[in-house]
Amino acid sequence: MFTIKKLILSFLPAVCLYACHNAPPEQDTVDFSMKGDTVVVPGNSTLKSKLITSVVQSRPYRLQLLTAGAVKAIPTQYAEIAPPFSGRVVKSYMRLGMRVTPETPLFEISSPDFMTAQKIFFQEKSQMQLAEKTLKRQEDLKANGVGTEKDLEEAQTAYDVAKKEYENAVVGIKVFKADPDNLILGQPLVVKAPIVGEVLDNKIVVGKFINDNSSSVAIVAELSKVWVAGQIKEKDIRYIHALDECSIQVTAYPDKYIRGKVYHVNEMVDEDTRSVQVLIECDNRDHLLKPGMYVTVDFINAPTQTILIPSRAVLQANDQSYVYVQAGPGKYLKRKIATSGSDNDRVIITAGLQPGDIIVSEGAFYLSNAK
User: Fold this and answer.
1) Nearest to 242, CA basis, from 212, 270, 262, 214
2) Are the CB atoms for 191 and 94 separated by under 8 Å?
3) By CB count within 10 A, which of 58, 187, 197, 290 is most buried?
4) Are residues 212 and 229 both part of a single domain?
5) How far is CA 310 from the centre of its chain?
6) pTM confidence score
7) CB 308 within 8 A of CB 348
């Protein structure tokens, strides 16, 4: 008997050890409940220690908006020179980079149309001068009692008609940008620069016949100021205003930052890209920016009071962002929010939260499983 008892006692430690190793693992009790959009977590719940809350605050924040842009000449300071009429180039004054004004001659062409206009001008001028002399003679005769009223009226009518024809001929000469007062019969047509600027392109060849429907033969532009055309997404357009400062960076000059100001925000939204074109005017006296060049635009916005929360606090469901706001001890309300991007590990909030709200900043995903 003693032997059996002793044997049973010797087996007890082994049985206890086996039972301990094969006991089912302790389960975490999910001790919370759902009431509408509010998750209730009792004070003795194991989940409570996994939830970390923080107070929502509004801080000064400068939103950084970066976009690609293209350099373009300002339309009022850019001109493509095309021949006004057909003719043969007889002389060229242009050279690339030459500074010009609206009175600077660019080239001369011998134009049949201009020659015809000259002939008409001088014929009508001669006819008007002859009619004027006849009118004065009839006025003198009438004043001395020799002429008749009828002859005077006819001379007046002839002069009025001749004067009108001459005025039409003057207009015909001015169409060619020529000066009727200094016109010489047979002179070539002088094409002048229409704006202040410099010659960027020159395709003039002396002796070449050019048509009036030809493409431009020269380009004159003033590039001391240029535009940069950038695209801003529709959702960000509220941050852009006229005269806002911008920083322009060019790949060719990685260490150079060029300042600019918003000149115009387009009123139309591109339906394909859902973006709005923004024109930035830049000082370009050193000619670093070339039309057609691609650049990076950084819109420099003044700091504004903005709510940013940890990205771990934001949850997603059905394309909707939401957080859990503490509504009382152990109570967390699911609330929808609107965001407008992120900054490192923080999310920018545009709607749904106010300073002073207490949110679940870590562990919010545990609450999303509440039923």
Assistant:
1) 262
2) no
3) 197
4) no
5) 33
6) 0.64
7) yes
